[in-house]
């Protein structure tokens, strides 16, 4: 396999540009592709994601990472677009993922149209990947890491205060930056409840699905992985607990080093995709 090459692309998303990284060795012939979806406050260059896409590319996949247009993050990894972050919604993220997948499948991202398609989603991106997979027959394999099982993440009191104030503050733990989040996401959840029903989508997924979740996840409890597995109830869905694992399996940003837990996640992910994608 040729050494993977990184190329950069952009598409028009729901809230602005979708910034895309494509890592691939052989670009002229068709290979299976994997699209990686980051989570809330995440981005394509956060900590572990470039290492995941590099490993995927070295294993012979076309690996696609991208910044959702509402991530608020530029191509340097800085939260320089806070207004986009503030107005981001689940529906906007679904739209962006569809844009990326459609362009990839049409051969518009610098590589031949792939022979198969897999999705990997982390946290909120895992929920988005579940929703997309349930309605896109082109997806042949799914892996979720620490995925959410529901879009309702905030208490009734919090939502009432949020609406009264017009925003809620979200802190970037790494930089200390305070980012306003407007009620757009609350409106989206109320107006599109059926479309955004992740557990309902899980019941419709027919492709092989690996659900990876740390048993000590401090952000998305392990019970949400159990809910997803119970909702699926299909033999092709497997729950892989990472004992003692946190939300990012020990990975940090800026990247310092891998961890045994993260290596187990990487290995299981690549093995699953290699088995179920052609």
Describe, in plain words, how this protein is organized in 3D.
By secondary structure, the chain is an alpha/beta fold. It has a single domain, classed as 3-Layer(aba) Sandwich (Rossmann fold), CATH 3.40.50. The chain contains 9 helices and 10 strands. The chain has helices spanning 49-58, 82-86, 90-105, 124-133, 156-165, 184-191, 198-204, 222-232, 260-276; strands spanning 5-12, 17-24, 33-37, 62-67, 117-122, 139-145, 168-171, 178-181, 209-214, 237-242. It has an 8-stranded mixed sheet with strand order 1-2-4-3-5-6-9-10, with helices on both faces. A hairpin with a 4-residue loop joins strand 1 and strand 2 (17-24). The chain is globular, with a radius of gyration of 18 Å.
Assembly of the depicted chains: single chain
Summarize the amount of helix as a percent range: 25-40%
Radius of gyration: 18 Å
> Order of helices and strands, N to C?
EEEHEHHEHEHEEHHEHEH
CATH topology: Rossmann fold
User: Can you tell me the number of structural domains?
Assistant: 1
Q: What is the number of E strands?
A: 10
Give the overall average pLDDT: 96
What is the CA–CA distance across the termini? 16 Å
Task: Please describe the topology of this protein.
Elements: E1 5-12, E2 17-24, E3 33-37, H1 49-58, E4 62-67, H2 82-86, H3 90-105, E5 117-122, H4 124-133, E6 139-145, H5 156-165, E7 168-171, E8 178-181, H6 184-191, H7 198-204, E9 209-214, H8 222-232, E10 237-242, H9 260-276
Parallel strand pairs: 3-4, 3-5, 5-6, 6-9, 9-10
Antiparallel strand pairs: 1-2, 2-4, 7-8
Helix pairs in contact: 3-4, 7-8
């Amino acid at each position: 396999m040729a050494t993977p090459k990184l190329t950069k692309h952009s598409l028009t998303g729901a809230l602005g540009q979708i910034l895309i990284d494509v890592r691939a060795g052989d670009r002229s012939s068709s290979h299976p592709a994997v699209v990686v979806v980051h989570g809330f406050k995440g981005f394509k260059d956060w900590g572990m994601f470039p290492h995941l896409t590099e490993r995927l590319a070295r294993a012979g996949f076309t690996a696609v990472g991208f910044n959702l247009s509402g991530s608020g993050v530029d191509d340097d990894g800085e939260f320089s677009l806070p207004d986009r972050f503030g107005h981001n919604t689940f529906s906007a993220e679904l739209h962006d993922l569809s844009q990326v997948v459609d362009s990839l499948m049409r051969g518009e991202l610098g590589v031949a149209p792939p022979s198969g398609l897999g999705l990997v989603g982390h946290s909120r991106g895992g929920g988005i990947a579940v929703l997309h997979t349930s309605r896109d027959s082109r997806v042949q394999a799914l892996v979720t890491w620490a995925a959410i099982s529901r879009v309702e993440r905030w208490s009734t009191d919090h939502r009432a205060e949020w609406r009264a104030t017009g925003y809620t503050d979200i802190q970037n733990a790494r930089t200390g930056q305070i980012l306003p989040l407007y009620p757009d996401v609350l409106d989206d959840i109320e107006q599109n409840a059926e479309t955004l029903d992740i557990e309902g989508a899980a019941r419709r997924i027919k492709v092989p699905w690996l659900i990876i979740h740390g048993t000590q996840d401090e952000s998305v409890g392990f019970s949400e992985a159990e809910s997803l597995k119970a909702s699926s109830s299909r033999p092709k869905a497997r729950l892989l607990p990472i004992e003692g694992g946190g939300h990012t399996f020990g990975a940090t940003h800026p990247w310092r080093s891998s961890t045994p837990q993260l290596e187990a996640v990487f290995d299981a992910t690549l093995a699953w995709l290699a088995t179920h994608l052609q």
